[in-house]
TrEMBL record:
It is found in: Mitochondrion. The keyword Chaperone applies. Keywords: Chaperone, Mitochondrion, Transit peptide. One of its GO terms (cellular component) is mitochondrion. It comes from Dendrothele bispora (strain CBS 962.96). GO terms for biological process: mitochondrial proton-transporting ATP synthase complex assembly. Belongs to the ATP12 family. Coiled coil: none annotated. This is ATP12-domain-containing protein.
């Protein structure tokens, strides 16, 4: 089945911190020192109330985003602050940027999606996924795949059609396919109602699953992280049923997609 081979444009927190500092001639201090040393340079991690919000601190210094903004979270996002702090606390000796999904996602929302123009650009990019959406491309063989498609994809398509009053086509070929313009316009209106936290979560979930519809269902809390992951990996699960699991490949992907989707749904939490 056709897959859109796009690399997820996630903020590379550690690399960009140092690159930005070097470009501007700034000293390598605080958080951006992480990229220079690739070692843990702080002793304590904390969460503090500052400026009517929450910040994560490393040795009492507020954590900053790759663009140099303070990673300031609303007080309602205590869970997000706690998860960000936990990510940095768990960097025991050598830094592992891939183990900072919550930090990178919160930074993405703050650095790039707070402005309406930026959100609009992201919305347009996400809508492009409708024409190549994972769950719109069906196969009629082998039987285990057909069963999984019906189990995980059919209900999502039915939900989207009913919830938003739209038409969604399904395809059995990768050539010359597109969704109706009326569908794209309606879903564009849905995205325009999202705040920068929701758009950041939607973006990550779409790129992780290669599916606009799975991501939308997740952000709208219609499905769980587990259900979203299963829907996104229908082909993989079909292959595993037939041929078995490939060690250090299928299992790694299994945990990675849950980490990405889990960070997306946690970003939306107001607890």
């Amino acid at each position: 089945m056709f897959r859109r081979l796009l690399q997820t444009p996630r903020p590379r927190c550690l690399a960009r911190w140092n690159a930005t500092a070097a470009h501007e001639g700034a000293p390598v201090t605080g958080t951006n020192r992480a990229e220079a040393t690739l070692k843990r340079f702080w002793k304590t991690v904390g969460v503090e109330k500052r400026n009517d919000g929450l910040v994560v601190t490393l040795d009492k210094r507020a954590l900053k985003t790759p663009s140099g903004n303070t990673l300031l979270l609303p007080q309602s996002k205590q869970l997000v602050a706690t998860l960000v702090a936990t990510e940095w606390e768990n960097q025991e000796t050598l830094l592992k940027p891939h183990a900072l999904p919550m930090t990178s996602l919160a930074s993405r929302a703050i650095d790039s999606l707070a402005e309406e123009k930026s959100r609009q650009d992201v919305c347009n990019a996400l809508l492009d996924y409708l024409d190549t959406d994972t769950i719109c491309f069906y196969q009629d063989y082998p039987p285990p795949l057909v069963e999984l498609q019906a189990k995980y994809w059919d209900p999502l398509l039915s939900w989207a059609r009913t919830k938003f009053g739209i038409k969604i086509k399904t395809f059995d070929s990768i050539l010359g396919n597109s969704q109706p313009e009326e569908t794209k316009q309606k879903l564009a209106e849905v995205l325009l109602e999202f705040n920068h936290w929701e758009i950041a979560a939607m973006e990550r979930a779409t790129y992780a699953t290669k599916s606009f519809i799975i991501a939308l269902a997740l952000v709208k809390r219609h499905i769980t992280v587990e259900e979203a992951s299963m829907a996104a990996r229908v082909e993989v699960h079909s292959q595993i049923e037939r041929w078995g699991e490939v060690e250090d490949t299928h299992d790694v992907d299994f945990h990675d997609i849950r980490r990405q989707l889990g960070s997306a749904i946690c970003l939306l939490s107001d607890v």
